[in-house]
Automatic annotation (TrEMBL):
<feature type="compositionally biased region" description="Basic and acidic residues">
    <location>
        <begin position="76"/>
        <end position="88"/>
    </location>
</feature>
<protein>
    <recommendedName>
        <fullName>HNH endonuclease</fullName>
    </recommendedName>
</protein>
<dbReference type="InterPro" id="IPR003615">
    <property type="entry name" value="HNH_nuc"/>
</dbReference>
<feature type="compositionally biased region" description="Acidic residues">
    <location>
        <begin position="108"/>
        <end position="117"/>
    </location>
</feature>
<feature type="region of interest" description="Disordered">
    <location>
        <begin position="57"/>
        <end position="117"/>
    </location>
</feature>
């Protein structure tokens, strides 16, 4: 599923996107990749020099997400991170697994005993 806010593009119709841009030293590995629908992928500034384009950052571990998307300054002067909270993403197996293991790390709760979806 595309990580772009509001997108429901499936992986097969998405592009792989470096969270930390390759030109900025981002690694080409699974930990630094996220899916992005082609239209949203084209809007990201990997160099993070243009405040009027989208930027991507690695999300804080406690968030349970992999990527924060920073909107253009023209759309949000505060540039507060946004996420894809599309309903189909919430139950995606990878998101569910990360959320369970995050809860284990934060609360000492065993993921197998968790009733968190």
């Amino acid at each position: 599923m595309s990580s772009a806010p509001g997108s429901d593009s499936p992986p097969a119709a998405s592009l792989m996107h470096h969270i930390v841009g390759w030109s900025a030293g981002g690694r080409t590995d699974l930990d630094n990749f996220t899916f992005a629908a082609p239209p949203q992928h084209a809007l990201v500034d990997d160099t993070q020099t243009d405040p009027d384009r989208w930027w991507t950052h690695v999300a804080p571990p406690e968030s349970g997400r992999r990527v924060d998307r920073i909107p253009p300054q023209s759309a949000d002067p505060d540039r507060a991170p946004v996420h894809n909270d599309h309903p189909t993403v919430w139950r995606h197996p990878g998101v569910t697994r990360r959320r369970r293991f995050r809860d284990r790390d934060l609360n000492g709760e065993d993921p197998a005993d968790s009733d968190t979806p």
